[in-house]
Amino acid sequence: MKPPFSVIFLTTLIGIGQGLFLALYTGQLYAYFDLLPAHDSRSFYAAGSIIALLFLGAGLFASFFHLGHPERAWRSAAMWRTSWLSREVIVLPAFMGMVFLYGLAHWFNWHITVIEIAGGRKVDITLILGALGTILAFALFLCTGMIYACLRFLQEWHTPLTPINFTLLGGASGFLLASIFSAFAAPNSMSFYAGWAIALTLLALLSRSASLLRNKRIKPKSTLSTAIGIKHPHIVQISQGSMGGSFNTRAFFHGMSAQFMRAIKPGFILLTFVLPLIILSIGLFTPKLLIAAFITQYIGLLAERWFFFAEANHPQNLYYQKIA
Amino acid sequence: MTQLALVIDLNVCVGCHACVTSCKEWNTSGPAGPMSDSDPYGADPSGTFFNRVQTFEVGTFPNTQTVHFPKSCLHCEEPPCVPVCPTGASYKRKQDGIVLVDYDKCIGCEYCSWACPYGARELDAKQKVMKKCTLCVDRIYSDTLPEADRKPACVMACPTSARLFGDVHDPESIVSRTIRENAGYALMPEWGTQPANHYLPRRKTTMKIHEDELMRADNPLKIDGKLPKPSKQQPTLDDSTSW
Ligand code: SF4
Ligand code: SF4
User: Fold this and answer.
1) Is B172 exposed, middle or buried (0-12, 13-18, 19+ CB in 10 A)?
2) Taking the CB of residue A253, how many other CB atoms lie within 10 A of it?
3) Cα end-to-end distance, chain A, whole Å
4) Which three-class secondary structure string do you get for B55-98?
5) Is A84–B84 a contact, with Cβ atoms under 8 angstroms apart?
6) CATH class assigned to A5-219+238-320
7) Which chain A residue shows the shortest CA-CA distance from B119?
8) pLDDT tens for residues A24-83?
9) Looking at residue B222, what is its pLDDT?
10) Peptide bond into B31 cis (omega under 30)
11) In the 8-state DSSP scheme, what is residue A70?
């Protein structure tokens, strides 16, 4: 497939936004159970929500460049019963709305008690909003991943590893951003978030490697023989029916050399996983190094997403092997 | 339930591209707007087509066969391109099984083209909406065209009658009969899309002559055995010159 840059930015940016929100809420839960020192409502949770919203908004903005008719984008919420894309279109704004409410409640210190649980603990509205936001964040990861995983003949994508990778990669980059943020807003929680970022990056490395190994051994179900229905081992295309290119040659081939494809794989593994892990482990307590780790990882994620698309081999390509 | 479809006979197709030009001519002139081209006479021509004729070579030299292969939307009975569309612009008609795109609803997200294993959908570079074969839905139900012309433009144009059009759910229709009698098959059956369009395979035209066709087995003379067969050297009645 041809990697669409708008979608690469969309998926990586909202991943960070989702991960950052999950990090904020994780922090709040830890603080709630007295495992972390309490953070300031406004300067930590509300400010963090604003940053998450900025990333989510940037992703949403990028997604419009993918559309031929962005002015009709509202129509895309219609088919949520069947289409994962439609579901994503609904869940993304819903999640953004929830992050907004969560931030708002923290900004105005609305710690209204909703229920009291055993031991006299009070569950306030921010905890409830945060829980709803968490559900939506995971739902969004699922929708984004399933957009690709549900296409059964794109065999490289058709695996539960696809949504798992999206979740873990988004989580890793979001928690990493949270560690930078806390370095300024709540320095005593910085190592907590950096620790989570390390753990999530390691997990993401595991699941992404699993999908790379899986995809390496894929045997395409479709062949030229099934594509034109002629049982013969030697079939070559002479002409694809046009002298120039077509949508089919532009949208489904990444157009890069085999060397480039070979180089980008270790490249993104290094940038997304190895380097950030090294920088994080030596620089657990230095904000500057955290920023370096975040930027390295984000560049790695762009390459990772590019490769995710480029690696997928669409069966329609069988019909577009040769121009003549 | 009706399922309109094309049957394409690869044994007959000569790769003349008449269906391609006829399709483009009809569908670029309609109320849906042009199927846009860019640089049509230049070095790098490109454009939107509903139908393309591709050519494949089967076998290794000197035992090769050239196969011309017309390719368009197959109007799948389980179309994977339809449920993924977020807007509902892509839909399959209940009444005749034609898969269509509503150009006024399509947002040009390309998702359906990812979901079609056959590469039958093309995003129009100028109109930015997804396009594909409509089975000439504006011809086959037309009130203004003469009855005989209410067929897809490609079918009308084919000089060798390699393209047939009809209802594949009606067992007695021309398409169902040809599929049945000539081993019609579907493309990429491995994905369960159940294409409505079928292809007829290349077949060798051979003549089978059985021995009893060379010599009459039921010759009454032989059965009765009354008249012994004259020897080859003996003159016979019908061979008058040898008297
Ligand atoms: S051939 Fe492709 S575009 Fe046509 S109905 Fe089947 S999946 Fe959809
Ligand atoms: S390109 Fe148009 S028809 Fe295709 S999925 Fe998107 S909105 Fe639907």
Assistant:
1) exposed
2) 16
3) 22
4) EEEECCCCCCEEEEEEEECCCCCCCCCCCCCCCCCEEECCCCCC
5) yes
6) mainly alpha
7) A316
8) 999 999 999 889 888 888 899 999 999 999 999 999 999 999 999 999 999 999 999 999
9) 64
10) no
11) G
Measured from the Cβ of residue A236, the count of other Cβ atoms closer than 10 Å reads: 14
CA distance B71 to B54: 7
Query: Which of B54, B109, B117 is facing A239, going by the closest CB pair?
Result: B54
Q: Helix, strand, coil shares of chain B as percentages rounded to 5?
A: 20, 20, 60
Residue listed under structure tokens 């790098």 = B44
Contact residues, A window 32-91, toward B, CB-based 8 Å cutoff: 66-70, 72-73, 75-79, 82-86, 89
Judged by CB atoms closer than 8 Å, whether chains meet at B113 and A244 is answered as no
Residue at A314: amino acid letter: H
**ipTM of this predicted structure:** 0.92
Under-50 pLDDT residues of chain A: none
Q: Where are the domains of chain A?
A: 5-219+238-320
The separation between the first and the last C-alpha atoms of chain B, rounded to the nearest angstrom, is 73
The sign of the CA dihedral B172, B176, B178, B180 is: negative
DSSP sequence for A5-28: HHHHHHHHHHHHHHHHHHHHHHHH
Residue B120 amino acid letter = A
pTM here? 0.90
Q: How many CA atoms lie within 13 A of A75 on its CB side?
A: 19
- The encoded tokens of residue A58 equal 């940037």
The Cβ of residue A57 has, within 10 Å, a number of other Cβ atoms equal to 14
Measured in Å, residue B137 CA sits from the centre of ligand 1 at 16
- Name the DSSP class of A320: -
- Give the tokens for residue A310: 């480029």
